[in-house]
Prior knowledge:
The protein is of the alpha+beta class. The chain has helices at 2-7, 88-98, and strands at 11-16, 20-25, 30-34, 53-58, 62-67, 72-76.
Amino acid sequence: SNAVRARFHEVQDIYASHAAFAAIRKDGSVVTWGSPVYGGNSSCVQDELSSGVVRIYAAECAFAAVKCDGTLVTWGYPRYGGNCEAIRHQLVAEVLRASSACCTPR
Length: 106
Protein backbone atom coordinates (compact mmCIF):
# COMPACT_ATOMS: atom_id res chain seq x y z
CA SER A 1 0.00 0.00 0.00
CA ASN A 2 1.04 3.63 -0.39
CA ALA A 3 0.89 4.22 3.38
CA VAL A 4 3.44 1.47 4.03
CA ARG A 5 5.65 2.61 1.15
CA ALA A 6 5.65 6.17 2.50
CA ARG A 7 6.94 5.00 5.91
CA PHE A 8 10.00 3.46 4.28
CA HIS A 9 10.77 6.29 1.87
CA GLU A 10 14.40 7.48 1.94
CA VAL A 11 15.67 4.89 4.44
CA GLN A 12 19.42 5.21 5.03
CA ASP A 13 20.27 2.53 7.59
CA ILE A 14 18.46 -0.46 9.08
CA TYR A 15 19.23 -2.06 12.46
CA ALA A 16 17.90 -5.33 13.88
CA SER A 17 17.17 -6.76 17.30
CA HIS A 18 16.21 -10.43 17.65
CA ALA A 19 12.75 -9.94 16.12
CA ALA A 20 12.35 -6.25 15.22
CA PHE A 21 13.87 -3.59 13.01
CA ALA A 22 14.55 0.14 13.23
CA ALA A 23 15.42 2.32 10.26
CA ILE A 24 16.85 5.83 10.13
CA ARG A 25 15.43 7.91 7.32
CA LYS A 26 17.35 10.68 5.54
CA ASP A 27 15.47 13.31 7.55
CA GLY A 28 16.73 11.83 10.85
CA SER A 29 13.42 10.23 11.81
CA VAL A 30 13.08 6.57 12.81
CA VAL A 31 10.63 3.91 11.63
CA THR A 32 10.24 0.66 13.59
CA TRP A 33 8.48 -2.64 12.90
CA GLY A 34 8.41 -6.21 14.11
CA SER A 35 7.69 -7.76 17.49
CA PRO A 36 6.79 -5.13 20.12
CA VAL A 37 8.58 -7.17 22.80
CA TYR A 38 11.83 -6.83 20.83
CA GLY A 39 11.50 -3.10 20.07
CA GLY A 40 9.24 -3.18 17.03
CA ASN A 41 6.85 -0.70 18.64
CA SER A 42 8.40 2.70 19.38
CA SER A 43 5.10 4.57 19.85
CA CYS A 44 5.99 5.57 23.43
CA VAL A 45 9.02 7.53 22.16
CA GLN A 46 7.86 8.35 18.63
CA ASP A 47 7.93 12.12 19.23
CA GLU A 48 11.58 11.87 20.28
CA LEU A 49 12.37 9.78 17.20
CA SER A 50 10.74 12.18 14.74
CA SER A 51 14.00 14.00 13.92
CA GLY A 52 17.68 14.37 14.74
CA VAL A 53 18.63 10.69 15.08
CA VAL A 54 22.17 10.03 13.85
CA ARG A 55 22.82 6.48 15.08
CA ILE A 56 20.95 3.46 16.41
CA TYR A 57 22.35 0.62 18.48
CA ALA A 58 20.48 -2.67 18.69
CA ALA A 59 20.44 -5.24 21.47
CA GLU A 60 18.56 -8.53 21.60
CA CYS A 61 15.31 -6.95 22.84
CA ALA A 62 15.82 -3.18 22.67
CA PHE A 63 17.17 -0.25 20.68
CA ALA A 64 19.01 2.94 21.65
CA ALA A 65 19.05 5.97 19.35
CA VAL A 66 21.60 8.76 19.65
CA LYS A 67 20.36 12.17 18.60
CA CYS A 68 22.53 14.99 17.28
CA ASP A 69 22.24 16.88 20.58
CA GLY A 70 23.57 13.90 22.54
CA THR A 71 20.17 12.78 23.78
CA LEU A 72 19.74 9.04 24.12
CA VAL A 73 16.33 7.53 23.37
CA THR A 74 15.63 3.89 24.22
CA TRP A 75 12.70 1.57 23.56
CA GLY A 76 11.93 -2.11 23.67
CA TYR A 77 11.89 -4.58 26.54
CA PRO A 78 12.76 -2.57 29.71
CA ARG A 79 14.70 -5.36 31.44
CA TYR A 80 17.02 -5.57 28.42
CA GLY A 81 17.78 -1.87 28.01
CA GLY A 82 14.52 -0.54 26.61
CA ASN A 83 14.08 2.03 29.40
CA CYS A 84 16.93 4.30 30.51
CA GLU A 85 14.89 6.93 32.38
CA ALA A 86 16.57 6.26 35.74
CA ILE A 87 20.04 7.10 34.38
CA ARG A 88 19.23 9.33 31.39
CA HIS A 89 20.92 12.41 32.94
CA GLN A 90 24.21 10.50 33.21
CA LEU A 91 23.99 9.07 29.70
CA VAL A 92 23.52 12.39 27.92
CA ALA A 93 26.83 13.69 29.24
CA GLU A 94 28.63 10.47 28.28
CA VAL A 95 27.13 10.37 24.80
CA LEU A 96 28.08 14.00 24.18
CA ARG A 97 31.66 13.28 25.17
CA ALA A 98 31.92 10.12 23.12
CA SER A 99 30.05 11.22 20.02
CA SER A 100 31.29 13.37 17.20
CA ALA A 101 27.93 13.26 15.43
CA CYS A 102 26.47 16.49 14.16
CA CYS A 103 22.86 17.43 13.51
CA THR A 104 23.04 16.46 9.86
CA PRO A 105 21.59 12.98 9.35
CA ARG A 106 23.98 10.53 7.73
